């Protein structure tokens, strides 16, 4: 295999793996809201605490990021922040109830604390 074919194969492998990667789900509600009820495994980064540089370092600007909060309002604000910073695959998924329905999560998957 030539070096150029190797690079092409490597590039396709990276492209396929990045497309098939699971989205990053971020709950932008407050810590108190998250502790009262959250979806297990999802990150909690309150809107007031969004650190664009840390998100870039952690996930990269091309990661698929799904944002949600209580009703979708704060997720919309977070979406604007991330898009302004150059994130290319960010979506406002609405409120936590919408996300549970979208992901077909039963209420028992909720994690009240």
Strand content: 15-25%
Q: Give the overall average pLDDT.
A: 85
Largest sheet, in brief, is: 4 strands, parallel
Computed Rg: 17 Å
Work out the number of β strands: 4
Helix content: 40-55%
Tally of alpha and pi helices: 5
Morphology call = globular
Low-confidence stretches: 3-18
Biggest sheet: strands side by side, in what order?
2-1-3-4
What is the N-to-C order of secondary-structure elements (H for helix, E for strand)? HEHEHEHEH
Structural class: alpha/beta
Termini separation (Å)?
Answer: 55 Å
Q: What is the topological layout?
A:
Layout: H1 3-20, E1 24-27, H2 31-36, E2 43-44, H3 52-59, E3 64-69, H4 73-84, E4 89-95, H5 96-102
Parallel strand pairs: 1-2, 1-3, 3-4
What do you see in this structure?
With 113 residues, this protein is α/β, with parallel strands linked by helices. Helices cover 45% and strands 17% of the residues. The chain has helices at 3-20, 31-36, 52-59, 73-84, 96-102; strands spanning 24-27, 43-44, 64-69, 89-95. A four-stranded parallel sheet has the order 2-1-3-4, sandwiched between helices. Helix 2 links the parallel strand 1 and strand 2 (43-44). The longest helix has 18 residues, at 3-20.
Keywords:
single chain, about 110 residues, alpha/beta, four-stranded parallel β-sheet, about 45% helix, disordered N terminus
Short description:
By secondary structure, the protein is of the alpha/beta class. The chain is 45% helix and 17% strand. The protein contains five helices and four strands; from the N terminus they run αβαβαβαβα.
């Amino acid at each position: 295999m030539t070096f150029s074919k190797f690079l092409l194969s490597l590039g396709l492998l990276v492209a396929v793996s990045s497309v098939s990667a699971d989205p990053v789900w971020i709950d932008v509600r407050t810590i108190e809201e998250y502790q009262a009820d959250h979806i297990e495994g999802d990150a909690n980064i309150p809107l007031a605490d969004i650190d664009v540089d840390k998100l870039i370092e952690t996930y990269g600007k091309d990661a698929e990021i799904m944002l949600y909060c209580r009703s979708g309002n704060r997720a919309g604000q977070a979406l604007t922040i991330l898009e302004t910073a150059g994130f290319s695959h960010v979506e406002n998924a609405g409120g936590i109830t919408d996300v549970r329905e979208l992901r077909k999560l039963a209420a028992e998957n909720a994690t009240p604390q």
